[in-house]
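tool_call: predict_structure(chain=1)
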Amino acid sequence: MRMLYGAVHLFLYFVFAHPAGAAAPQVLPPALKVADAIEQSQKFMLEKNRQKALQVLNQSLEGLPQKSRSRARLLESVQQLSSTFFTDKGQRLFEAAQSSVFENPEVGMARYREALALEDNNLLVLMALAHAQLAKQDCSGALQTLGLARQLTAHLQEPQLLEMQAYICAGNYEMFRERFKQLSVVDKNLEYFAQYLSALDLIQQKMWQRAHGLLIRVTELRPDFPEAYSALHKVQRELGERENVFGENYLKLCKAVTVRERKLYSLEPRLCVHTKEVANELEAKD
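tool_result:
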């Protein structure tokens, strides 16, 4: 009797929930949806269509909770597929650009562009090109390059932060603030840089005390990030304080900076460019 009642109840549910002629919706479990999205995106990558591959993943990311496993899996795929090289020649050009860009920026950037022509807007190459453009203070060029990165995906935080850096470079603080508001929960490894950029915005607004507090927080998160001390040195002068400790720390860190630090802090393309200026200010105080 119970089995009959259960069968009737199930029958009535489908009659009223799905009238004649209406197809019952197929709801896939979230994990299966993620697996299907990743599989579909990989098929597009085999066709060397990065745009469509990432479009599938981007659509699947919409609406997912920030800390969900499904989101983490999809973001991992976005990171991987956005930076995969399709050709050996493209990868060799990218590596050659990396080797030459510090000594000869123009040659390096030309090689990055050659690589992009072969690599369907590889995010790794776009980021490297934008980094080189910002190092040369080509703010509009960097924004154009990072616009291509945003078209690929708006879900990775490093490109978002570099784009915000480019808006600061261009003096467009309104767009910087708009992008900053859109920034989701910041990865703990990138929190220092988000706060550093926010401090630069406060400095531009002459909000010295708030900038000072935020920059102190940055030095607590990353004690060996030179630019926080350069900014603190500037804030300290504006506040009329005479101590030289921040400027001295900046010069000390920059003197010891290696390729490792430049890679670690690659989101700041102009790392340690103010050493001469800070050194002259410290000498003038003495």
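agent: The longest helix spans residues 30-46. Proceeding to next step.
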